[in-house]
Each structure stands twice: as structure tokens, then as C-alpha cells.
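pinned: reference chain
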Amino acid sequence: MNETGLQLVLSIVFVLVVILIWFMIAYQFVLTVAGFFHTRRSSREKREVDGMRFDWPDVAVLIPAHNEGIVIRHTLDAMLAFDYPADRYEILVVNDGSSDETGVIVKEFAERDRRIRLIDVKPGEGGKGKSRALNIGLSHTDAGLIAVYDADNTPEPSALRHLVAQLLLHPELGACIGKFRTVNRNRNLLTRFINVETLSFQSIVQAGRWKLFGVSTLPGTNYVIRRPLLDHLGGWDESAITEDSEMSIRIYMEGFRIKPIPYAVTHEQEPETWKVWFRQRTRWVRGNNYVATKFVRQIPRFKDKLLAVEVLYLLSLYYVFFIAILASDVLFLASVLKLAAIPLPGPYTAVWLLAFLLFIMEILLALAYDREDSFGKIGLIVLAYFTYCQLWILVVAKALWLDLVRRETQTWVKTLRFERRPAEE
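pinned: its C-alpha cells
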């Protein structure tokens, strides 16, 4: 290819990348505004629900636990503090092949409070993934509603009650999800980045899509789902290492909805080292690869075409972000190093600057919903863009390499827990 042809190709790619990134940012801005209205409506909704009386149904709280001795005490203390009728809920801890003191601790709690039950997975059958542990727990209860919490979670007392109330009020809902907050957000720079990421995702992607399209997806924790629906779906897919996203698609395919309830809050621990973070995020992307492969051909069969588009966007989000960031980085470096020049005229500096400012404004607005916006957060967001966001390129690339090139079997990778500080308790 001669120099003129190369410049033409670069110009076309550059324009396409600009369009792609601006589409993502503009779409996220719309979702951010929609998320604001959902949050404001939820504040009124909470007051309305708190003034209602319900005939509370039986709920089984499932907690998969694999070597969770370092955090399980805090979790069980929080579960016993639910302001839900004590005779209407039970806590089933599935001791999934733990080699630490998890089982001993849970047994101690169970001897003091009948609401807690310890379910030991048979020797040699543990550690095979969260989905399997959840299915084992499901087989030990007849409750009509199933709540799921990770073993590091400390939900607020009202969380379970608020989630169940929405299922009682809205039969079209298959599940309700709460909000999760980062309990160790002030531990180091990484946890501060993660806190910004998780709050933004929930306030923009989850709340915004619900307000506009009636769509949100299950997180791995702090949600309640109808037992008959679970039975109809055959429980959790034990081949899925991100069982939450996989289950979400099947719920929508059955015609049910998943509603986010931002005032049903739990506090969870996030990775405190980059190694743990990288392994966890790689598992997320590999899990998404599995879900995308499983469902992408079924999307055209969705009766709700708008929902089908949203599901497709959800499944492709990692890859769209990966392509856009990677392409923009390559073109930026090529221009700086004068390896290539973009002859296409236009106010590109202003366009990129405006897009970056809009990105910062979206994140700040999302953080404001949880009163975590501050002047200092601006510097954190800027730093995150040039560091944390760029690392997702490596995460997605690693996941694609393992799945598409090496074709390694997807296996569950437990996220390492850390000791909690007194201020986090």
C-alpha cells in the first residue's frame, strides 16, 4: 500500500474510532441522566414502601462459602440483623470444600441461632464453582423466594425487606437487585478506583437502562429471585463462571424483568492488590465470553426487539470498549511518534477534550447519587482514565487469548479476601 492509501485508511479508521467513542459517551450520558431520575423516584418509592404492610413470605438466604473464614463472622452478624420477620427467613451457608475454619465458625453461629444452617458439600465435590454451590443450597430449602449474598457481604438491615417488597408489589418481576458499596474503598488507590467504577456502573448502566428500557442484570450478590422461576429454569448453569449474567439472560427470555433497588444496600469487599483484581476481572470477561457464545444466536428470537438490542449491547460491551480504547491508543501513539499523520482536517483536539470532559462529568454525576462526589474525585477520575481504564485492554486481551487461542477450560477462580479494619466493620 502506498503512502496515500495508508493515509486514507488511517483517516477512515480515525473517524470511525471517534464516532464509536462518542457514541459510547453520548449513550452513557443519556443513561446517566436516566439513572438520576430513577434514583430520585426510588427515594419517593422507599418512603411509600416503608409505609405499607405486607404478609412477608418465607425467604432462604443462600451464601456460597469457600475458605471464607476471614470474613464470614461479619457476614453472619449482618444477616442476623435483618429487620425481616425472624421466623420467615433462614440462612443457608454452603461450605464449599473449605480447608480453613469456615465450617467451624458457621457451626458455632448455627448452634446459637436456628436461622442459620450449615450445608457441607461432600468431600471431593467442593470448590467446583459458585453455581454448583448455589444449586446445592437450593436443594435444601422449600422457601418461595431465594436471596443470594456473597460471603464477604454485610447488608444493611432493611436490604432484604426492601427487595422482597418489590417482588410482592410487581408480579412481572422475576428478581430484584440491590446496590453494593465498597466497604474497603479507602484502603488504597486500587480500591478507590474500584469504588468509582462500581458506583458508576450501578448508577449509570443499571439504573439508567432500567429507567429507559426496563432492563438491568443480576449482580453476584444482594438480590432476591422467585423460586418457581428458578425451578423452571433448572437452577444456575454450572458451566457459567459468571452465573449472574447468564441467569439474567434466561430470566428475560422467560418474559420477566429485573429491577434495581438502590436503597437496598449491601457492603462488600473489593480486591486490594492488582494481582487479585486482574484474576477476578479476567474471570468476569471469560464468563461473559461463555454467555455471549451461549446466547448471541438466540437474541433474534426475543419478542421484545428493544430488549434484544439492549442484551446484545450488554454482551458486546467489553469488546466494544476494548476495540475503541485500543484503536484510539494506537492512533494517538502513532501521531505523537510521527509514525503516521492524519491529514483529515477537523477540530480533533477540541473533540477529544470535550469527550473527556463529558466522561468526567458523567462519573461525577453518578457519584453524586451516593454523595461521593467531591473536588478531589476529579483528579482520581482523570488518573483512572489513563491507568485503570487502560488496564482493561490487558484484561480483555488475556480473556480472549485463553478462550479463543488456548481454549482453556473455564474454571471458577475464588477472589482472595482480606482482613477488615475496625473502621470497615
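why pinned: The chain has a mean pLDDT of 87. Residues 117 and 214 are 36 Å apart (CA to CA).
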